[in-house]
């Protein structure tokens, strides 16, 4: 689960999207012609008539999964055994089928834990050299599943934001060959001013204030690999990254990754971050100026700048491999043909396990992150089995591993799907749920990206509620939970978050409870079930997710990405095949 970090004014929330088209349509019947009876399966159940969401069940699952006995649910631990067994038992009890075609409820996810030994990073220009200290100045790693990886006097090239985005007519490389070089990049999207108002960002280029995937650090390393670079170093800036350098510093401990067939040798040798301070010094050493280069980098005319400086670093790894598991169950669709098409619900079961003690407590229980989302997934699954008949298409309930390690379980499913993604209509993800009572709204992170928004507007509208976009699209939260791996592969994916306008509470209550969680419980041993939890809002949100999945599974057409979405081209290509 991502932390809801700051306190930006609620400008985007002014945009209120109300109204259920479905309700409006219900009263529009006119003329004497009797309505044709709908085919048996062409049902559309009003949200109030869907099988009930039992919030006591959600609480009970959450308490079990977040109990000390489950040891914080780290992949590869005893906590994983207990969690996976618990989920499989629950799915069996509901009478759901095994979700894997091998007849099990499990998908093995091969992971490698990589712990880099501390090492300095050295920049050289002629006789001059600058030595960056591990962790204080530089955080770096290799994803190569190998004993070590090096940069040996690799030439440094500043490539601006390092972006190639054909839909925005943007290419920071301009055909320059960067093979074997080390790329120095800025984080986030190029901030392109709006031609009609220079104080704002151009909404037509990289989504304006909202971050696109080109802005994420993971993209930076991926494009470096595609270009054949030896290394990629990102200059950290707190604002554009969305978090301070100490979040990056947590990566000096063991990090997990998927074991790919090429043992990740297709990635660049060394991936890392340097502090802004060191970035400035490096550019100065190269006879350049950080601010001037950053300004140039925000233009389409930017060209790579060779720095005349080399980078050297050797990282030695400690490796351990484990098989973790995704848990998957299936409700088979009722239509003989359409049952081979799918709607997926996801929620990550893993959390941080046992770690450094805080106030004498070393178990990171992860009640909100994400025992409760997993519990919600179980409860939606149970509710689906209570429908008078299943929807036409099949529903998959996928609880993934290693979200906390970089969305790895969902990444594995998205690159090795059990059912074709071209026949997967949507993913609906739960990472955290509202524990503070009823809200008048529900937030969709990444609002405006796909037709799933209209499903959410309809379903919430039937409850008399509204949908709001997330308040901080510039932080790229949409790219930070499991649904993103579906989006990246082209599948429309919904990333809902708790509303902020609480019924009967002061206007700032929603912001306060989010901030309180971020400050006091997020990724801490204190993320436990609290006596004052009120799940009445979660019940309504889960109803919305239930209705969306049911309706997509019945729909006459696939949900689509909206024009301008960076995922639309991929989906279109996939569906053309
Ligand atoms: Zn988390």
Question: What's a quick, concise take on this entry?
Answer:
By secondary structure, the chain is an alpha/beta fold.
Poorly predicted ranges (pLDDT <50, ≥5 residues)?
Answer: 4-32, 34-41
Terminal CA distance reads 35 Å
Question: What ligands are attached or bound here?
Answer: zinc ion
Number of helices: 15
How confident overall, as mean pLDDT? 91
Name the helicity range.
25-40%
SSE class = alpha/beta
Radius of gyration: 24 Å
Q: What is the overall shape?
A: globular
Please provide the count of β strands.
Answer: 23
Q: For the report, how would you describe the main beta sheet? A: 17 strands, mixed
Descriptive account of the structure:
With 577 residues, the protein is α/β, with parallel strands linked by helices. Helices cover 27% and strands 24% of the residues. It is built from 15 helices and 23 strands. It has helices at residues 21-26, 55-65, 78-94, 217-226, 238-241, 245-249, 276-285, 290-297, 367-385, 408-415, 452-462, 483-488, 509-520, 536-552, 568-576, and strands spanning 97-98, 106-116, 121-125, 128-132, 138-141, 148-158, 164-165, 170-171, 182-186, 193-194, 197-201, 231-235, 255-258, 270-274, 305-331, 342-348, 353-358, 361-364, 394-400, 424-429, 441-445, 466-469, 493-497. The strands form four sheets. The protein has a 17-stranded mixed sheet that branches. The protein has a two-stranded antiparallel sheet with strand order 7-8. A two-stranded antiparallel ribbon has the order 10-11. The chain starts with 20 loop residues before the first helix and ends with a helix. The model is unreliable at 4-32 and 34-41 (pLDDT under 50). It binds zinc ion. The site of zinc ion (ZN) has 4 residues, from loops.
